[in-house]
Amino acid sequence: MSDAIRILLVDDEEDFRVLVGELLTAIHGDSYLLDWVGSYDAALAVLEADQHSVWLVDYQLGEHDGLELMREARARGCKTPMILLTGHGAREVDVAAMKLGASDYLPKDRLDGRTLERTIRYALERARTQETLQASEARFRSAFYGATTGMALTSMDGRFLQVNRSLCEMLGYTVAELLGKTLQAIMPADDLPATRELQEALVRGAPPAQLERRFLHKQGVVVLTQWDVSLSRDRQGTPLCFFSQIHDLTLRKRTEEALRHSEAQLHQAQKMEAIGRLAGGVAHDFNNVLTVISGYATMLARKLEGNTTLRREAEEIQDAIERAAALTRQLLTLSRKQPFNPRVLNLNSVIGGIEKMLRRLIGEDIELRIELDPAVGRVRADAGQIEQGVINLAINARDAMPSGGKLTIKTALVTQEKAGPMRDGDLPPGQYTAIIVSDTGVGMTAEVKSHLFEPFFTTKARDKGTGLGLATCYGIVKQSGGYIHVDAEPNRGATFKIYLPVASDAVEEAAQPTESAIVRSGKETVLIVEDDDSVREYAARLLRDAGYTPLEARNGVEALRLFETPSGRGIDVVVSDVIMPQMGGKELAEHVQRLRPNTRILFTSGYTGDMLDNSGVSQSGAAFLPKPFSAAQLTQKIREVLTNGSARKP
């Protein structure tokens, strides 16, 4: 009996109650339980219990009728299926009952058991179907309106029927504003033909589509989306509406663009690293060659003291070697392999020294004007890096003047009375030496200016620029304790102003040993360890002429063998190249210190920067002589090492 269908009969005639009970018993006696109330008020009284599966409601209920009861029950939230019982079969009553949500109606004068059971079963089935449908609709509404993805139902002509909040937020509209528009109204005109073609294909039976589509935000900007669209049909297959899911691809596209940007940065970094390694290798080999040329030119000049003409020619060779060595240093600086070496500089001398190089770099179609204020103050900075910074600005200016123009480089002494705005903070009051680089090029927008010093940012074609020139310049200025400011507008050129604090110390000229230093005789034994034959032979000859006893080895392994020979027992100092095959200078020095703790070590190398860092020599504090070195520099450095006990350890 627990599975029995419980029925409430609302009828004011007890005889009819008996009839209904007999009909139900005759069909399935144990399948139904019949409860009976005889009035409108009594029916409302049992409404709260909600214990019945179906109601049978008589139309005639004294002062009230069944329609009133059904209306009131529905108003109170009753969802129980109701069947109206009519005695006169008025069509308008039946229609009114169905409008109130009645499951069916039955004429009382023609009631039989089978009809009654079928009607009850149908009402229950319809109620279950309706409940399932309502639950499904509730789930759809919850998914539709609560989704973080934009969703829309559009009519066959593209008009919005329903939209969710996510779509409104994505496109900047309210629900009311979107419901008044068509899908085509918020798409760029270029996308409309393909959109209509897709909708027509769906009507013809094409499967749901997924593609990228542009939509127009209310503010006019384009929103790139992934548009998933399908067509809904009724049971007969007639198209009803389009269902769209619209995913905002802005974040994904930004992420993809950032990834592409990172890959481009990595590619540029790898390319610059390769260029740097190539530059370091070229500089190393070139420095070896310059060492030999410089050494023999010095020897030649000394032997020609009585011949003024030939001696002057030998000195010209030495001057050319100095210029070549300067070019090598600039090559290393441009490839970021030159270490930071600040000293007090005369800025005018630094800029004047690269004027010829600048003219070659910018080309003949650009007029170069150098205006150096003789009153400029001294600055503490790395000369090579200042050269690099000015060169980078000049190259940037050249590229901004593809049809020619004028490039002006000035220096000036500036007194800042109060703090002034710079790119990265206020310029503090004080005295500054300014480098001002101006061009008559294409200028730049405010957007470009905001990214100007970011690494790898460039407005040039992919194969025309690395985006590192101005970023490197910015780093040089900051490392030198300075500030940089840019004035630029589209089509009005650009002016870069670099402010470097004035140094109070005297200018520190790079130490240049006099040639008289090489006449100082030495009697010690010097082991020269060098894999380049020309450099090794030149150094041995030079030291022999200076009174030393030179021994030669091509690498660390050969050098250690010499220590085991009778002549090797008297070695006072080892002059060793850093990078060599089989055994390098650092490893050799460690062996020597264990074998002969009192033996001095002097390293030489044509490499600088990270190559020396990787070898461990630059961190050791050992004595070091960079190539190319002159005869005076070598003999003076050897004498310094021999007389300085702190230079023993590598």
Description:
- The chain is α/β, with parallel strands linked by helices and 650 residues long.
- It has 21 helices and 26 strands.
- The strands form seven sheets. The chain has a five-stranded parallel beta sheet, sandwiched between helices. Strands 9-8-12-11-10 form a five-stranded antiparallel beta sheet. Strands 14-16-19-21-20 form a five-stranded mixed beta sheet.
- Helix 1 crosses helix 5, helix 9 (250-303) runs antiparallel to helix 10 (308-334) and helix 9 packs parallel to helix 16.
- The protein is elongated and about 155 Å long.
Topology:
Layout: E1 5-10, H1 14-28, E2 32-37, H2 40-47, E3 54-58, E4 60-61, E5 64-65, H3 66-75, E6 82-86, H4 91-99, E7 104-107, H5 113-146, E8 150-154, E9 160-163, H6 165-171, H7 175-179, H8 192-203, E10 209-216, E11 222-233, E12 239-248, H9 250-303, H10 308-334, E13 343-345, H11 347-353, H12 355-362, E14 366-372, E15 379-381, H13 383-399, E16 405-416, E17 420-422, E18 425-427, E19 430-439, H14 446-450, H15 469-479, E20 483-488, E21 494-501, E22 525-529, H16 533-545, E23 549-553, H17 556-563, E24 571-577, H18 585-595, E25 600-605, H19 610-615, H20 617-620, E26 623-626, H21 631-643
Parallel strand pairs: 1-2, 1-3, 3-6, 6-7, 14-16, 22-23, 22-24, 24-25, 25-26
Antiparallel strand pairs: 4-5, 8-9, 8-12, 10-11, 11-12, 13-15, 16-19, 17-18, 19-21, 20-21
Helix pairs in contact: 1-5, 2-3, 9-10, 9-16, 10-13, 13-15, 17-18
